[in-house]
Design goal:
Elements: E1 2-8, E2 15-18, E3 23-27, H1 36-48, E4 56-60, E5 66-71
Parallel strand pairs: 1-3
Antiparallel strand pairs: 1-5, 2-3, 4-5
Length: 72
Amino acid sequence: MKIFVKVKAKAKIKKLIKIDETHYVISICSPLEKNKANKEIIKTLAKYFSTTISKIKILTGEKSKEKIIEVI
């Protein structure tokens, strides 16, 4: 399943908001540097979808606030 994620970094509270079946907004505490944000996004999505982090892959947007992510 492919999902589209919009990231808001340096938030005070970490949260995930579902817009519709394929669009999400994630607020994370990590800054957008040195891949810290991507790791936190993957952990958050793994917890949300009740899967392991190895089954979540960022397809596009590794250095962008808008990402396309595949959840297996």
